[in-house]
């Protein structure tokens, strides 16, 4: 009796060990394992040898678990079913012995299943999930020895499994899918929700992934906002523009704004002892660094580092300037907005009250959608800014100084200021979950 109980405990323990090992090894971080192998960790080397062929490893574990479970059931039924049947017979129940034997086997199976599931599966697997590294390394020598012991049987099972997989049109030798960018991003979002990764870290890593997908024209200063210098203007006009706008670089054009002849570096400009047009063009104006507007940000970043250019001029497919981009812009695309010490900081999207927002016309439409939690139609790809959204709603170009109200996509948009035919600022009130534009309500000055 006692010997039978000891055997059940032993087999349940073995089941627990292998179930624990299975989860621990699967949960082991591959990068950490490679690092340990490179550092000469002997246990890590054995573990790596086991996981080189995942199908063989899983087959080994399955054989060990199945064998321990089978032996456990066999010994329990053989030793306890008869005792239970005898006990039932003594009660005087008018039931045939064969039926009582079947009932006894059923009782033993249910009790043993409970013990095996709780102590042989659930508890060890939960424990393994919490201590995957220490357990997988600790059990590595044991698993390595078991793998050698069951090698012939595992080979037979592996061949059988591969043949069945081929019947279903699957290639058993094909490598498992590598971790994708999307999977990493999903893990980041989950980590952020659980508090393991804070919001700033999450945004920074997400920006790194997106850096290779966004194009230069998405982060550039648009041509309409670029301050340029006319090569034919007087030195006084140049000086006035430089002091007024306080930029570090200015594109210089000749005859037409499409004909950029160079870039003025104000650091060199202010170092000049004699300020003349000739000396400025000779010592302070550098050749323009032209790039196509659709170049990816990551590629542009590498190119600007290689050429040691801080300032680039974007050209569209017709060879005309579409905007400018600096290394500062590229860094901001990675880490977020960076402001200089005396720079006037105005948020493009400000929440004034529940469901009420102040939005600048140059605010990115993706940021507006994200912060206001609104839904726009697929046509939103036709514009990049909030200004473009309003243009699409009113279907015209507003006059300077005009103010008006329009309803669209669950928003009531109060346009407060228009300059140079562009929306400077608007106050937006969320009205409801509407999906189509409504008629514009005009109230123009």
From TrEMBL:
It is a multi-pass membrane protein. GO terms for molecular function: flavin adenine dinucleotide binding. It comes from the Bacteria. GO terms for cellular component: plasma membrane. Residues 221-279, 284-345 form the CBS domain. It is found in: Cell membrane. It holds the Pfam family CorC_HlyC. CDD domains: CBS_pair_CorC_HlyC_assoc (cd04590). Residues 1-201 form the CNNM transmembrane domain. SMART domains: CBS (SM00116), CorC_HlyC (SM01091). Keywords: CBS domain, Cell membrane, Membrane, Repeat, Transmembrane, Transmembrane helix. The keyword Transmembrane helix applies. InterPro entries: CBS_dom, CBS_dom_sf, CNNM, FAD-bd_PCMH-like_sf, FAD-bd_PCMH_sub2, Ion_transp-like_CBS, Transptr-assoc_dom, UPF0053_domain. The chain crosses the membrane at residues 6-26, 99-123. Belongs to the UPF0053 family. This is HlyC/CorC family transporter.
